[in-house]
């Protein structure tokens, strides 16, 4: 017998297709979000966008430094050589004049030179003649001090062309260097923060990141806070992608993202919340990093330049704060090479520290505004409740007074009615009693008359006349109807 294949209902097929379509859309959206953090390179390679931006900015700054060094050397080197030649010529003329004064006595001149007097008199400082400030290496270091705004001031452009180029070069190089320093510091702080979490074995990064993104402390993320969280995690979404993501992760469709939904989002996107979870420790880490980096720079410069420890601390502080007084400056090639690396990282940390302080102040101000708004809302609500309760109390008290007044009036009216009715009943009863007394008196008189008539007839036959029968019958009827011996239509005790 052929087996009968059960075909599922149409509704089940539709549900399966919808579920499959939804899963495919979710998977495609997650792939798009992951790809939005990557920068595609050649040969199928990709790189994180922040790392790509860091490398790009470092290369740009290196190009600016070397291009500026070459251009400054091209503009300032001829003038420097000319000034060098003029100084050498002036020195030769001065020496010849001294020899004439000494009558060309070389023995006396050498004696003066050996004593040091002639050498100090006829030889200017080494930096005026021997140093070549605008060689390519020295000019490149000068370009670095310009775009980092340190500006030691040990030498400066002297030609109009060099000074004009300095203005244009600084306008381009200073902003680019600022961006580069921030990128370097951010990636360095990311690495430090990650190492901090690994060392502290912190496994609650998602909840800490959620608390960081929850600006108002409501326990849920509204759409603006959720958008900021997605952007902070490195995802760049269009409006359509963001709304699609919200529709997928917001399971209860209330327009807010709770902790569980946020955790599911982080897991499904593979997002890294290390930086967000460590924001509470970033100021401490950056401050400690700056002091540690300053100590390292002091140690290396003291070894390279034979400085004392306080000279090293002094130069490190002047460099990282971009004061750049110029009274101390590395003279050796290792010292100058290290100075470039030291200043780049240190200035980046300083920029991050200032940014964090600014952000902390902004968060404090934002929290103050939120607390003030909550206090205002609470005060308005309390005021509304007081107004509502007072209006209800007035209505209730007014109704109570009216009920008391009307109740008192009603009781007075009822009392008057009862008293008047009682007085009426008493008057009626008194009147009935008077009428009954009169009737009883008349009946007694009638009975006495009848008795006298019967006694006057002697003992003859008893003849009952109709009048006497009627009187007797009335008497009997009355005695039956009214045992008290009287009849009254208004008597309430009369039995009919």
Walkthrough of the structure:
The chain has 496 residues and is an all-alpha fold. The two termini are 103 Å apart. Helix 2 (49-101) packs across helix 6 (136-147). A hairpin with a 5-residue loop joins strand 1 and strand 2 (46-48). Residues 1-7, 126-130, 401-406 and 454-496 have low confidence and may be disordered. Among the domains are: 46-182, Helix Hairpins (Orthogonal Bundle), CATH 1.10.287.70; 202-277, EF-hand (Recoverin, domain 1, Orthogonal Bundle), CATH 1.10.238.10; 279-388, Orthogonal Bundle (Helix Hairpins), CATH 1.10.287.70. Helix content is 76%, strand content 1%. It has a two-stranded antiparallel ribbon with strand order 1-2. The protein has helices at residues 10-36, 49-101, 106-115, 117-122, 126-129, 136-147, 160-200, 205-213, 223-232, 239-249, 259-269, 274-277, 279-305, 309-320, 333-456, 466-481, and strands spanning 38-40, 46-48. The protein is elongated. The protein has 16 helices and two strands.
Overall structural class, as computed from helix and strand content, comes to mainly alpha
Level-2 CATH architecture of the domain at 46-182: Orthogonal Bundle
Count of distinct strands? 2
Q: Which oligomerization state do the chains in this entry correspond to?
A: single chain
- The helix/strand order is HEEHHHHHHHHHHHHHHH
CATH-defined topology of the domain at 46-182: Helix Hairpins
Radius of gyration: 58 Å
Strand proportion: under 5%
Q: Which CATH top level class of the domain at 46-182 fits?
A: Mainly Alpha
**Helical segment tally?**
16
Cα end-to-end separation: 103 Å
Mean pLDDT: 75
Taken from the alpha-carbon principal axes, the silhouette is: elongated
